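Entry:
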Amino acid sequence: MARNTQHIDRILEVAGDPGAAARSRLAASWRRSLTHHGIDPGQGGQVRRLETEALAERLDRSEAMVRVATPRIDALYQLVGSSGCGVFLTDDKGVVLDVRVGAGDQDVFQRWGLARGCDWSEASEGTNGIGTCIAEARRITIHRDEHFRVQNIEMSCMDAPIFGADGSLIGALDVSSARADQTEAFNRLIAAQVAQTARQIEVDHFRASFPKARIIVADSGGSEAAMLLAVDQDDIVLGATRGARKVFGLSATGPIAALPASDLFGRDDDRTGFEKAERAAVVRALARAQGNVSEAARGLGIGRATLYRRMKRLGLGDGGANLSQE
């Protein structure tokens, strides 16, 4: 009881200080929870849960994401499930859509409200892994008493956002722990795996969104962001992931104005990741065709003259000479 009182007093003190919110993202989230959402950190009660029909509507809207995410969250659960962790996939509003938990941990997660249909937005639960990840559109770890509501301070949550093919946020991936002895160091290891899995889901969703397009994968330069372009048979960019949109100065969300991919590749701004990806694709096609340009062009789905122009621009010799990559 004393610990709970101390937590509530700390929350109220920090959240009530505008200066603290300016210095700390966690304090800023606490302040949002208190002043914007009007949540009482000491108030108990169950997590809000959607009715069956409302949940079905959410699942229908997120069907494409859930479908491509299923094998990824299965694999993630295989890595973390034995340590008392559960894996949760939510929509862009923080409503849990899919769950992976061990039989021995189900009661704990159900009691905490980590179950299908439960609303973990900041507006509902205050600062928490799922809601704050979505509110700030970034990967985040909320460890135990960093949670806003006192009833949530026994859990640790590691989260990463998932962005859709149009650059907008479409969901979040969460791993929450039921273990009281889980350390912050172990949380960091899990958080890295959560971020990697979220990017894999993002890539799979992007590819599924452009099934007939040629997908160009760029060198991310060490960035966690997925860097993909979807290009049609005329070399026109159809879509780009959020990371690629940032790099190439494209609209942050929504449809992309029609432009040739070569206009992006040719920019003199040291952004050579896509040029490298395009060169590698041409080299592979020529290698498979044993240097036959016509056959390589057919394999790439472009015309022979177009391939010759690309080979010249990429520094590749006619007929497959000089195929080595720099």
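Strands lie at 85-91, 96-100, 140-143, 156-163, 169-177, 214-217, 228-231, 237-240.
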